[in-house]
Specification:
Helix content: 10-25%
Bound molecules: alpha-D-glucopyranose, calcium ion
CATH architecture of the largest domain: Alpha-Beta Barrel
Shape: globular
Structural class: alpha/beta
CATH superfamily of the largest domain: Glycosidases
Number of strands: 19
Radius of gyration: 24 Å
CATH topology of the largest domain: TIM Barrel
Largest sheet: 8 strands, parallel
Strand order of the largest sheet: 9-8-7-3-2-1-11-10
CATH class of the largest domain: Alpha Beta
Number of helices: 16
Length: 543
């Protein structure tokens, strides 16, 4: 935004997540690449986002599509090379866009040279870089821990007659973060990318890094049902969120801060952490600062009801430690898309919510088009999670499909067969076409992003709840003399919202629908699925 009022770029800015396989292909192999992202930077700059985060682009056997890293300091040939990366970074910076990479510290690929060495023999110097355990007395795995992708989290290695631990696929052995040599090596990886100029890192499964030293069984989950998936049979009490992880997160923060001017957090760390709020917030740091933004995923699972949302927002705001900056997420490459969860009509309302709450929003690519999940025919399923638990609809392919750019073949994404099918609606739901439609959801995203830039109250103002009755959620954002009201109709019926005295004379700054909403004396009428931002006509009259 133009005026920063002492706030940092990652506080005032909006982050846009790119799943690189699906953004833009330039060499006709059906898979997106770095040159493709570079060719679309003008789109991202004109959309009005401030930073892009790219899911992993490192050399990888792609067992988990890049979250199985075989070399942390290079680029997979499918995406390009380091020269392409440097060019992308320079071109992003030239447009005022920051660039964040995905850092995957919990596990490597089983083809990473470290693991190849580690499994070579029990006395290899890298043996203790991973988590090796003897079998239980009966020959079974050392404990009952379950992989997040289903099945036992231990893999037997016949050559050295021990099990190794993998929280995800067996092709993703967990590193042993209790080993100082592992820490040093991974901290060097962070420095490698910061030295190259990246503006931040999104840290994959940060809460997984440290496991209980004595590897006790996890307790059974009394609420387990098959639909939850295999991993939820037990509670991950001992396999995740151990107290020792916080010193590691603090070390990572110190590295990031060593690049900023005067420890002001020029480089940002975002932690991927799925935990209840009280535990999540510990990752801001207590004695020492940890990540700048522990991802707040609550809107993804929240019931779409005004009362429930209001409570969730108020509780989160109230629980934030002093100086902690909030953040909000509506979707990512692991979770159902917002348009699939809420429907097209509410996708615009959700966009307004995401972009008007206090805190840094992260957008997921193509959500600005209202793209929905794509049903993948069984024979085309690619996601390892989908393949391992096919009956449970846990697969993530539906949310990772190609970006529809225009009306040309394959929506302008690729000149070949795309690695995952496009959504069937691409002839109408694509960037080129929606850019021509003044009331498309793409146009709404642009207007919302522009409004955030124009009105500091939306980006950095205080938050106060005004109303949460029935289908209406309304709140105030205030910065200095500027006060705005955001009013959202979460349902399909006309709603009337009484306005506070100070806003009795106000106008509609922005509506999610065509034609401005109806402002009456002291009230606003919200049509079905409408959200509005209101501004008092006389901003200076209030006390
Ligand atoms: C994170 C990623 C997910 C990946 C997993 C293992 O949850 O977001 O895509 O499969 O970690 O790295
Ligand atoms: Ca390609």
């Amino acid at each position: 935004m133009a005026a920063s009022f002492g706030f940092l770029w990652w506080q005032t800015g909006v982050i846009y997540q790119i799943y690189p396989r699906s953004f833009q292909d330039t060499n006709a192999d059906g898979v997106g690449d770095l040159k493709g992202i570079e060719s679309r930077l003008d789109y991202l700059a004109s959309l009005g986002v401030d930073a892009i985060w790219i899911s992993p682009i490192y050399p990888s056997p792609m067992a988990d599509f890049g979250y199985d890293v075989a070399d942390y300091c290079d680029i997979d040939a499918r995406f390009g090379g380091l020269a392409d990366f440097d060019s992308l970074l320079a071109q992003a910076h030239a447009r005022g866009l920051r660039l964040l990479l995905d850092f995957v510290p919990n596990h490597t690929s089983d083809r990473h040279p470290w693991f190849v060495e580690s499994r070579a023999s029990r006395n290899n110097p890298k043996r203790d870089w991973y988590i090796w355990r003897d079998p239980a007395p009966d020959g079974w795995p050392p404990n009952n821990w379950i992989s997040d992708f289903g099945g036992p989290a231990w893999e037997w290695d016949e050559a050295t007659r021990q099990y190794y631990y993998h929280a995800f696929l067996k092709q993703q052995p967990d590193l042993n973060w209790r080993n100082p040599a592992v820490r040093a090596a991974m901290y060097d990886v962070m420095r490698f990318w910061f030295d190259r100029g990246v503006d931040g890192l999104r840290i994959d499964v940060l809460w997984h890094l440290v496991k209980a030293a004595d590897f006790p069984d996890n307790p059974p989950n009394p609420a387990w049902q098959p639909a939850l998936g295999d991993m939820h049979r037990v509670l991950q009490l001992h396999s995740t969120d151990q107290p020792e992880v916080h010193a590691i997160a603090a070390d990572m923060r110190a590295i990031a801060d060593s690049y900023g001017s005067g420890g002001r957090g020029d480089r940002v760390l975002i932690g991927e952490i799925y935990l209840p709020v009280d535990r999540l917030l510990h990752y801001y740091g207590r004695e020492r600062a940890e990540v700048h933004l522990p991802f707040n995923f609550q809107l993804i699972d929240a019931p779409w009801q005004a009362r429930a949302l209001a409570t969730l927002i108020a509780d989160y705001e109230a629980a934030l430690p002093p100086d902690a900056w909030p953040n909000w997420v509506l979707g990512n490459h692991d979770r159902p898309r917002v348009a699939a969860r809420l429907g097209q009509a509410q996708a615009g309302v959700a966009a307004m919510l995401l972009l008007t709450l206090r805190g840094t929003p992260t957008l997921y690519y193509a959500d600005e088009l209202g793209l929905s999940d794509v049903a993948i025919p069984p024979a085309q399923v690619q996601d390892p999670r989908g393949l391992r638990e096919p009956t449970l609809a846990l697969g993530r392919d539906p949310v990772r499909t190609p970006m529809p750019w225009d009306g040309s073949e394959n929506a302008g994404f690729t000149a070949a067969r795309p690695w995952l099918p496009l959504h069937a609606d691409w002839p109408v739901r694509n960037v080129a076409r929606m850019a021509q439609e003044p009331h498309s959801i793409l146009a709404l995203y642009r207007r919302l992003l522009a409004a955030r830039r124009a009105h500091p109250a939306l980006a950095i103002g205080d938050f106060a709840l005004l109303d949460a009755e029935g289908d209406i959620l309304a709140y105030q954002r205030r910065f200095g003399a500027e006060r705005l009201i955001v009013a959202l109709n979460l349902g399909g019926n006309l709603q009337r919202l009484e306005l506070p005295d100070w806003a009795s004379d106000c106008r509609v700054l922005l509506s999610t629908l065509a034609h401005a909403a109806l402002v009456e004396d002291r009230a606003v009428l919200l049509r079905a699925d409408e959200g509005v931002i209101l501004m008092a006509n006389n901003q200076n009259s209030e006390g």
